[in-house]
């Protein structure tokens, strides 16, 4: 058998992707699965965006583009930041990539390497630690808990910094907790960052999905000095239901973006030409589709909260953004459940899939044992039935 590289041996598959693959496999065998695994909007990409892509293909936009993206597409992103966050950036400060995950990889590859430490508050999105490790740098996980709304304090950041710290990764609204840092909380974190030499990667991909009073803040706009050391990540996947189009972007200091562009030119040539045309239509076209989808997510969130309150032994904090409920199931560990007792979140999820046909992702994949994540980017009737089945199972009825 062919030997594998140390990188290939060490890298683990994405836990969210793995859970979704498991659900898909069961469905292909004709089994009904209430699938809350993957964080991807279930809506169709809005019609005018699809039309722009079809026209682009027909008009011959089917070739390589510049490595960092089409100038018009980079301009559309830059203009969007000025409109939405009142942040003036030039197209040279924007890099388009094949999804925000790719943008994060490019940013890490440009900023950190062996011997460096990257500070990541937990719970964190599954791919952060793996993507950091792929560069040879070391993730330094800083624990946050439900008691502080899963938010990192400036004091925690100060304590985590060592002479090797290079980068701080922030995610608000957060996957998996739905936590949204207020402007005041971010200002306090920004002060802590400014007292160090840390660079910041601020993943703001759920910025258009906030609920109630919560509002998104673009970290780079909080202080003039921050825009010189922050790479902001976002993309079209969540906002415009465009996960399969793979359109993500990074906005940051010109020299960092140029370096990321060089890396991208070697790795993948350029982002997909047709998707870039679709992105221009998404950013410059009508935005009422965004508000409609946000409104529907908000209603589903309220439904999930109501149903979770009915479940025995579940504790949760309400998500202010994104489309995940993150709840504590540890009170069920070691207790008699149909199929036998479970002792951790992974076993809880396996048993929920086996006995209730409900697919969840264990919190341990996000650096938080005892919790599970449920994506509510799925239809209300699936949410209703899936959570009723969890309730029946936990009460011993399944
Ligand atoms: N960041 C976070 C926090 C996410 O949840 C996701 C979802 N996949 C991404 C980045 C990557 O998004 P994509 O690659 O689909 O643009
Ligand atoms: N962000 C989504 C999730 O967390 C998509 C899956 C992935 O890219 O890992 O489920």
CATH class categorisation of the largest domain = Alpha Beta
Biggest pleated-sheet summary: 7 strands, mixed
Overall structural class, as computed from helix and strand content, comes to: alpha/beta
What's the Cα radius of gyration? Answer: 21 Å
Physical arrangement of strands within the biggest beta sheet: 2-8-7-6-5-3-4
Summarize the amount of helix as a percent range: 40-55%
Strand content: 5-15%
| The CATH architecture of the largest domain | 3-Layer(aba) Sandwich
State the end-to-end distance: 45 Å
Bound molecules: 4'-deoxy-4'-aminopyridoxal-5'-phosphate, glutamic acid
Average pLDDT confidence is 96
Helices and strands, in N-to-C order? HHEHHEHEHEHEHEEEHHHEEHEEEH
**Number of helical stretches of at least 4 residues:** 13
Given as residue ranges, the uncertain stretches (5+ residues, pLDDT < 50) are none
| Count of extended strands | 13
